[in-house]
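Escalation from tier 1.

The customer reports that the assembly of two entities below gives different structure tokens on two consecutive runs. Tier 1 could not reproduce it. I'm attaching the input and our single run for tier 2 to review.
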Amino acid sequence: MKSVLGDRRAIAILLGPALVVYTLVMLVPVVWSFGYTFVSGNPLEGFRFAGLSNFSRLVDDPDVHAALLFTLKYAVIMTIGQVVIGYTLALFYVFVLRRSSTLVRTLVFFPVVVPTVAVALLYQKIFQSAPRDGIVNELLVNVGLDRVDWLGSGTTAFIVIVVMDIWRSVGFYGVLIYAGLIDIPDDIIESARIDGARGWSLFRRIVLPLSLPILLSSIIFSINGTIKVFDSVLALTNGGPGSSNTPLTLYMYRTAFAYSDYGYGATIALLLTIMCFIVTLFIFRSARRDITT
Amino acid sequence: MTTATFRDRRIVVAAIASTVALGLAACGGDDGSEASVDAPDKLTYLVNAENGNIPPVLEDMAQGVCAEQNEVLPLEISSIPQAELDAQIQLLVGQDALPVMFAAGGTPEEGAKLWEAGKLVDFEKELEELGVLDLIEPGAISTIKNLYGGAFNFLPFQYNVEGIFYNKAYFADNGLDEPQTWDDLMAAAETFAAQGITPFAASGEQGWPITRLLSGYIYRSLGPDALQKVADGEAKLTDPEYVEAAAQIASLGENGYLGENVASLDYDSAQNEFLTGNAAMFYMGTWALTAINDPEQNQIGVDNVGFMPFPAVEGGAGSIDQYPSNVGLPSTFGSGTFTSEVGDWTKCITENFGEMSLRDQNTISGFKVVNDVPGLPPLTQEVQEIIATTSDTVLWMEALFNAKAGQDSSHNAALLVTGEMSPEDFMSMLQTDLDAG
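Tier 1 run:
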């Protein structure tokens, strides 16, 4: 084996095909897309070299500012929501339900496998206000409160998006963190208990430090997923009302395909790529430190 | 160099070459760059999902008068939401995979681009050759030429005027006549609102039913060329008189004249609000006659619906008899698939669509009706009369906008009437889009 792996030609034969396929399906489109940032136009009208005008437009475009703000706000709130609620669920599975948690885990995980569009339609009905009230407005009216046009205002529509996406994804984070928590050896927990650790102090001094690696993985998953949010927003509000809940991804899609401006769309995509890259770098750098010490 | 080394190198080269070949084969496909006409085996038709008028008539044709053509080229209809149509067509053009027949998107400018790129059929030439050009209303051809790059490159499956449908009984009960001025209209709206009747049913979810009110006010107050001036750069939407128009429409929402949940109301629900008597008025194009003349949908009575033009604005430069007119979302045929078989279908459609659409759907198209259609509902006859006698028409808000301004206009209209966006901000956003080109 050593002689095979020591042979450069053997390595080339083994890696070459995969590398070529990766280059064709990943690197070529990435470079191609980067090339688009210097042109304007579309396949129908043809492309013209535009220099750096797409980049200067990106800096000045108020729609990009709004979309960027929405994306960051959504990513931060969703990451906190997904990880905190997921962690709470995992603690609940491990320390309260223990071995009988299978059914609850399955039920909570169920929305993860439901298609996003189906979930969005469900939430549209739940939060509906016209032509008839949905269940949420019915409840509000029944307890004497005013009905709310949930999807008719930017602020309330944002709340619905967050609630829906947390409901849709928290089962995954619950299971992910659960897998990390059950890896904490029982004898460590047991010895901590013998030493008098209970409740909060057990959690604070034993469980939390030992589950930090999985927590960090969850944060990486969450940020990278939420920063690229697209389908749930598109299906629930189409970025609206107006453009109040339009993430960068949706603005990029519309710019390229609805407004036929491939070059500027690719420039927005580049901004999104850089954002993901920075977040990933930042998290990986902090992950290098030994966080359990 | 040993034989073994040489063989190894050949293996490496062969492996890489075959992988590249495989990859290229997978990613390649038909480049579609040929200028020749591809013979289709089906009459594929991509239409906006909201369109309930055209597909049923075409399906009836496929089973009846055009059965022979359908035998050769079976009709296959697929639909997507209107808001996605422009984007979908863009994508398909990029892949040279346009359907044989497809509806225009919401932005005429995009249709004009398709024409300039040589992707559309020149119907003036083709229908002349097929001997059916005289079966198209000249007014419809002129509207299409005005909108879609100066050529007759779309077929007028609809020919509509727009105005306000109203509940006659509600007006009579309150001793109200058809409002002639904007102030009369507001007074009527106030009367209805005081009685708990929603004055106007409008879909904020769609947005364009609200911007239609805005363009109506602009045309009446500033004259029929008001939006052309904006398109030509002679005026800006941020000019005070245009912002004033937006403020007037915003006041409809502020006064509660559009109902509580206008932002969430979709098209069908808004229409339903009117047809079930919850709303007194409904601004819409005459394509709504299909639903209005359907006793199952129209619970307020087919004879209880009147139609009036958008009222005049006192002291304004526009006139009440200048109806907004359009050809709906007209459909066209791709030049790359226009074979003689597709031509046969086109001829059959041109000869029969006008009559069948009027008889079965109560909608008026730009195809001439060769034979008399007996038993038309009075409102449809009235609209036919209006179309026949109207000489001065205007367009709609987004007709001369680019794609981004068009989308922003309809996406944000709901925010204008809910007060989340000021009239100044709304018009400024649109002007910025227009300035960006």
